[in-house]
Amino acid sequence: PDLFDHLAATFGKYAKQIVFEVTETEAIHDFTKLNRLLAPLREAGFAIALDDLGSGYSSLNTLIELRPDVVKLDLELLQHLEEDSPRSRLIRHILDYAAGEKMLVVAEGIETEHQRAIVTKMGCPLLQGFLVGKPAAPAWQNAAQINDLP
Asked: Whole-model pTM?
């Protein structure tokens, strides 16, 4: 609880711009507890993302039980992607489900024009990867400087 109070006090002004990621690669055994822990962040306006969807043991169950605001498709799921394949059909189903549940979807690991073309044609709204932009240092170096941001 102290951590959530600190986050709200320090970053609350920027809550709508901050997304906390829960990685799907780790087995989540107690969704009730996890959702209870995340509730104060959601109430403060922070978004929750399910990272690495498609890489873990219980992806679909995690997607349903966590009810994230954002779903990040794992780069392994997007490797060797062809336009009309079982892999691309699965991704389209995930995109349809996410749209119906009002979740944003991010395709991770987009490194080639071929990958970009396929996922955008499927309707994936957001892309992440070296093709889009390389990792960069943050605009601020420590939490104290966050108050200096516009």
From this structure: 0.81
One-letter amino acid at 18 equals I
Of 92, 97, 34, 27, nearest in space to 59 by CA: 27
Q: Which residue, among 93, 86, 83, 90, has the nearest Cα to 120 in the 3D structure?
A: 83
Concatenating the DSSP letter of every residue in 77-126 gives HHTT--TTSHHHHHHHHHHHHHHHTT-EEEE----SHHHHHHHHHHT--E
Q: Give per-10-residue mean pLDDT for the chain (150 aa).
A: 78 89 74 86 91 75 90 88 84 94 95 92 93 82 60
Token pair for 74 = 């794992």
pLDDT value, residue 58: 58
Between vectors from CA 105 to CA 72 and to CA 116, what angle results, nearest 5°? Answer: 90
Q: Which two tokens mark 83?
A: 């336009």
Backbone angles phi, psi at 19, to 5 degrees: -120, 125
